[in-house]
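Deliverable D4.2, example record:
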Amino acid sequence: MIWVKRQRRLGAKLKSNPFRIVLTVPENRYAEFRAQLQAQRAQLLGEVREKIAASGEVLGFANQSKVTDDDGLADAAAEMDVALVMRESQELQDIEAALTRMDEGSYGGCTECGDEIGRARLQASPAARRCLRCQEKFEHAQSQIHKAGL
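Output generated by the structure prediction step:
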């Protein structure tokens, strides 16, 4: 178990005893990522609200057949809308989980192996929960599951 103790000075120190490891991290180490995550969350929520308002319906993907006389095209459009809503929902969940990890002090650590997630990876994907090595293993396992289901 890793306990995080925040300090206001720059630099990070690792203190350990036989019972626990305490990683001291400056408070603002991930401030840029928090701001980026909050901006992404606000943007996604805004996009979802716009889609709902523009559709004039509770669900933006409902009744696509009103837009076109082709039922096949309407079904395809509805499926695309559902997929988009699901992707945006997952992205929002990932952002919320990252912000929660920040509040708990576990942000920046891989949820699989416990190693530190590289800063470059966090810059590319601030909601990342796994280091690059563990993410690659996860994606490989997911692709194997998908292939087995086909």
